[in-house]
């Protein structure tokens, strides 16, 4: 994207924020797919939620309404609930199987 | 100045996110995730989201990540083992990821005009007062449903994590 120099001084293009959000989301997808530790996979999900929150806030700025902020607030609340239940599930899995490798927890698959 | 600040925090966020994916020990991943969240809070401030920036630091970087770090310390599994991957995953994984980002970037540039620019302080609807008014008028029902959701999560977490009593 070609930007004239005066725009660099006047402000940041909104597309940069959305591209940052896309990059963070893609990194979250990569972590979700490539990592084997259940906790790291779970943290990648949190990274994806954060990336989506950034898009919400950026579009909220563009539309000059704060509805996007409220949506990202709800995303945070759901993430907190998800983290509590998900980590409890991880604790139970570890108690029963003594492993955090995601490939070894496959009794539903077999 | 805005662009410089944005680039600094965006670079921190991307580097920390890369570190999250690359590191094999979960505690290193957790600390990098905290870095991502803190720099995202600064970027929210730049977009006029004062309340959401504070909530990001308190709820995400504070509460949720402390939970993660506690569980990592409790389980103490150490580094993950090197995993066997299929050949096509090793070859096609990263290029597909780049294609994904490039497609999203292309769509963003197609949809949004490039003249939209963000100036610090141009949008002030994100302070706690404005958010609170909206939350307790227009979004009252979702807010109340959220409290039920959190109650369910508390009960679920206790049921899952307690010791079995015979």
Protein described:
The complex is a heterodimer of chains A (110) and B (166). The N and C termini of chain A lie far apart (50 Å). Chain A has helices at residues 5-10, 14-34, 38-63, 67-97, and one strand at 12-13. In chain A, 76% of the residues lie in helices and 2% in strands. Chain A is built from four helices and one strand; from the N terminus they run αβααα. The model of chain A has no long low-confidence stretch (mean pLDDT 86). Chain A has a domain at 37-98: Helix Hairpins. Chain A has 110 residues and is mostly helical. The longest helix of chain A has 31 residues, at 67-97. By secondary structure, chain B is mostly helical. Chain B folds into two domains: 2-79 and 90-126, Up-down Bundle (Four Helix Bundle (Hemerythrin (Met), subunit A)), CATH 1.20.120.1200; 127-166. Chain B is 75% helix and 1% strand. Chain B has helices at 2-22, 26-46, 50-75, 87-111, 128-137, 140-161, and one strand at 117-118. Chain B starts with a helix and ends in a 5-residue tail after the last helix. The mean pLDDT of chain B is 87. At the A-B interface, helix 1, strand 1, helix 2, helix 3 and helix 4 of A face helix 1, helix 2, helix 3, helix 4 and strand 1 of B. Strand 1 (12-13) of chain A pairs antiparallel with strand 1 of chain B.
